[in-house]
C-alpha cells in the first residue's frame, strides 16, 4: 500500500545573503528527492554557473512586468536592488499534490507567504555564527564583488531584525548539524495531525 501523503507543506528558508540557504536546501533535496524546490523569477543577471530554469527564471524587466500584470506571482519584492518573484502555479500544484515545496525567500517574501498561506507554510531562518564568519563566507564564495558584498552585509542588519516573525531559527555553524536540524523540522511538521487527518482506514 503506498504511504499516505498529507496536505502540502510550504517550507520557506531565509537568511542573510551567504547564510547558507542554497547549500542547505540542496542538501535537503538530495536527501529527499521527492521534495520540490520553488524556482523563482528574477531580473538579476545570472552568476557564472547558474542555469536558467534551474536556479532561477532569469527575466528582463519587461518580462517581469508582464508576469506581475498577469497575476503570475504569489509575491514579489525588490531584494539587493533586483526583483524576485514566487511563481503561483508551482505553489498551487504542490498544495494540490500534497508535496513538500521548499522556498529560498527574503524576509519580505517570507512575510507574504505567512499571510497568504498561514496554515500551509513554515518559516525557517538560518543565521551564521557571527557577522565576521558571514563576511568570510561571502568572500570565499567568490560570486560577488566587494561592493555587492558590502551592500548585502548592510542589508543583513535589517533582515536579522525580522527573525521573531519566523517559526524556527537555526544557527548555521557546523553545516551537517544545520542540515540535520532543518531536515528534522520538516519531518516533524509532516507529522502534525492536521496535515495527515483523516488517515485512510482509520478515521
Ligand atoms: P545563500 O544561498 O544563503 O546566499 P550559500 O549557500 O551560497 O548562501 O552559502 C554561502 C557560502 O558559505 C558558500 O560558499 C557555502 O559553501 C558556504 N557555507 C554555507 N554553510 C556553511 C557552513 N556551515 N560552514 C562553512 N561554509 C558554509
Ligand atoms: P540571490 O541573488 O543571492 O540568489 O538572492 C538574493 C535574495 O533574494 C535572497 O535573500 C533570496 O532569498 C531572495 N529571493 C530569491 N527568490 C525570491 C522570491 O521569489 N521572492 C522573494 N521575496 N525573495 C527571493
Give the count of structural domains: 1
Quickly give the CATH architecture. Answer: 3-Layer(aba) Sandwich
Biggest sheet character? 5 strands, parallel
CATH H level, superfamily name: P-loop containing nucleotide triphosphate hydrolases
Helical content band: 40-55%
Distance between the termini: 17 Å
The parts where pLDDT drops under 50 for at least 5 residues are none
Structural class: alpha/beta
CATH class: Alpha Beta
Biggest sheet strand line-up: 2-7-1-8-9
Task: Please write the string of helix (H) and strand (E) elements.
Answer: EHEEEHEEHEHEHHEHH
Task: Give descriptors for this structure.
Rossmann fold; alpha/beta; binds guanosine-5'-monophosphate; five-stranded parallel beta sheet; globular; 8 helices; single chain; four-stranded mixed beta sheet; binds adenosine-5'-diphosphate; 203 residues
Write structural notes for this entry:
42% of the residues lie in helices and 20% in strands. The chain has 203 residues and is α/β, with parallel strands linked by helices. The strands form 2 sheets. The chain has a 5-stranded parallel β-sheet, sandwiched between helices. Strands 4-3-6-5 form a 4-stranded mixed β-sheet. The longest helix is centred in the C-terminal third of the chain and has 16 residues, at 175-190. The chain is globular, with a radius of gyration of 17 Å. The model has no long low-confidence stretch (mean pLDDT 95). The site of adenosine-5'-diphosphate (ADP) has 14 residues, from helix 1, helix 5 and helix 7. Adenosine-5'-diphosphate (ADP) is lined by residues 15, 17-23, 137, 140-141, 172, 175, 178.
Amino acid at each position: 500500500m503506498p504511504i499516505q501523503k498529507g496536505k502540502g507543506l510550504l517550507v520557506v528558508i531565509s537568511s542573510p545573503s551567504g547564510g547558507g540557504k542554497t547549500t542547505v536546501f540542496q542538501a535537503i533535496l538530495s536527501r529527499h528527492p521527492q521534495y520540490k524546490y520553488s524556482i523563482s523569477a528574477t531580473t538579476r543577471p545570472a552568476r557564472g554557473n547558474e542555469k536558467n530554469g534551474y536556479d532561477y527564471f532569469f527575466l528582463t524587466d519587461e518580462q517581469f512586468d508582464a508576469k506581475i500584470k498577469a497575476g503570475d506571482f504569489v509575491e514579489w519584492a525588490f531584494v539587493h536592488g533586483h526583483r524576485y518573484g514566487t511563481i503561483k502555479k508551482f505553489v498551487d500544484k504542490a498544495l494540490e499534490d500534497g508535496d513538500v515545496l521548499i522556498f529560498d525567500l527574503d524576509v519580505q517574501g517570507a512575510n507574504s507567504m505567512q499571510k497568504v498561506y498561514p496554515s500551509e507554510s513554515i518559516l525557517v531562518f538560518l543565521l551564521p555564527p557571527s557577522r565576521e564568519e558571514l563576511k568570510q563566507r561571502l568572500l570565499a564564495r567568490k560570486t560577488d564583488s566587494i561592493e555587492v558584498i558590502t551592500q548585502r552585509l548592510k542589508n543583513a542588519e535589517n533582515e536579522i531584525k525580522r527573525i521573531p516573525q519566523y517559526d524556527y531559527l537555526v544557527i548555521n555553524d557546523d553545516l551537517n548539524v544545520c542540515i540535520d536540524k532543518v531536515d528534522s523540522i520538516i519531518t516533524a511538521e509532516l507529522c502534525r495531525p492536521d496535515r495527515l487527518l483523516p488517515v485512510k482506514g482509520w478515521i
